[in-house]
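hey so u asked for the seq, here:
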Amino acid sequence: MKRISIEIDCKRLSLAYSDSGPGIAYENREEVFRPFFTLKPAGKGKGLGLYIAREIAEYHGASLFLAEDEDHGPPRARRLQVLSASDSEASKPQLLHGLR
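ran it, structure tokens below
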């Protein structure tokens, strides 16, 4: 069964999205934010979605990054995390600590 989860932390102004998909391999966790990079088959993706999403987040003083979901074994990023500017720098290293 497919699953989508969204967690909102109003105190930290953060939002985390995760789903039951295959995740993104650790070595691609930053590549997916580059323009025109896609993991989809040829003709199925433009490779702009996460690039544009990160640009919008940064324009508004937030950060957008992938973090490992602790519920799954192999080092694959399964969480998309958005943090406000006030919490971005302090929280990002802690949230990414589990990535190998």
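The helical segments are 49-59, 85-96. The CA atoms of residues 43 and 51 lie 18 Å apart.
lmk if thats what u needed
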